[in-house]
Amino acid sequence: MSSSEAAPGAPAGASEKAPDIHPVLQNALRLSLSAKEYRALHAITVKRAPQRPGKASYPLQLRCDVPLEKKPRVPLHRSPTLRLSFSLSLLLLLHRLLYRFLVRLRANLRTDDAKPFRERNPRISRALTSRFAPAIGASLAGFAVGIMPQEQLRLTGAIYWSTRSLEFLFNLVNSKGLLGKRPWWFGSWLLMPVSCAQLFHAFVFDRETTPKWFGNVIMKLSPSYIPDRPESLPANIAWPEKEQIVDSLASIADLRWPAFVSPILHPGDPNILPSSVKAISPITGPAHPSITQLSCALLHPGVPSCSTAFLHHILLSVPPLARFLTTVTLALSIPKIKSILSQPITSINSICKRIIVMTAVLSAAIGSAWGSVCMLNSTLPRSTLPTKRFFLSGALGGLPFLFLSSSRSVFLYFFRAAVDSAWKTGVNRGLWKGRRGGDMWILVLSWAVIGSILEANPSAVQGSGLRKGLAWMRGDGFVDPAALEKRKARRESKRAEL
After folding, report:
1. How far apart are CA 386 and CA 225, in angstroms?
2. Is 452 inside any structural domain?
3. Domain that holds residue 114
4. Nearest to 22 by CA among 3, 42, 1, 5
5. CA-CA-CA-CA dihedral for 161, 162, 166, 172, to nearest 10
6. What's the pLDDT tens digit per position in 145-172?
């Protein structure tokens, strides 16, 4: 096809009015579009594009007369990217310099020549000659994060390192045998009831403070409690969005859980629903007449009892949840493909078992959170914790995670998300105010704890990659302190035997 020919299926006279088109683009259109598709595309373009009298717009003509919005230029010293890079670079530099300086100072103060100084300044000498002094002093480099302008990044870092420091402190205490008599149910899974309590309450009342993925998961895996628009519903009948359904549930809680007046039994009553929740009338209108609570009519309108609604939720949520978890689990198993191929039957059995357990746990968790809303509504008085009972519902939703073993990293991730949500919720509600530089102090304190634990018991710092990274930041090279400690212990034991 030459450049003077019209594209396939073009309207009559289009070739005379069309501008010159590159042959490659013409051939691409000819191969990708049929004549019928081209005519439809041309008709839509002619209909929507601005026209001059007596002339038709050609689909391939580009409009370049729209001015582009220019972003305001930021001075170089105020560039967020530059400040972030400079902050992290300064952090690494100061951490290494402070650590190596304090290590040498500690060594010099322990010599005989420094004995007069130790006698004149006993307290300062004990502090500087402590084995933890270099780690604590190097943690002061954390103040360099104050240069970066990203407040959310600083907050995320402070929450992450503070929770990791608490995790390593727990490992250290456990390695000392101080938690040997703990009950069988005591473990990291206890973080889930606390985390789910905060996240579920914030999802209903302060959704902007929760992670986006949390709301998406709740919406997607709650088809029986937060239904989609029925396909058979006529287009002229409005249906509330999923966010409107959750907002209406929050309004019902603020109204102290009003009773449900069935429009089927009272067709002439004009005040069936409060004015703030009129949007849910398409859901509650055909609800079962035996339902007595408005929240139950909203969450399970076709099922009269909470237990039956819970079973209905399990049946609806398990298939999509199993497909989702299967995809995620198989994707995460790709790096372990060699070990899977070496023992295929054992590996497949373990993968299938984990998918089944995770499906059951997540489905039961979401169902328990929603089902307990109606259960608490029917057991508690209306004025008893009208909005705070969602904390209890979320905590009940976190109980099934007891059966999800060896998932401490998952539990800690949920806990960090809950801490971030709780902080933002308190700030939005005016319960507390963020102190300037508070995230830097938390980061410095967390690094001091982690560095001290790495000195006392390197194996308590979980993760060989993290231990190597911390050793590299100190200037000791990319080595694992725990592995070095084990080698040193083996050499000493061999010497003792000799």
Report:
1. 20
2. yes
3. 79-182+434-498
4. 3
5. 50
6. 988 888 888 999 999 999 999 999 999 9
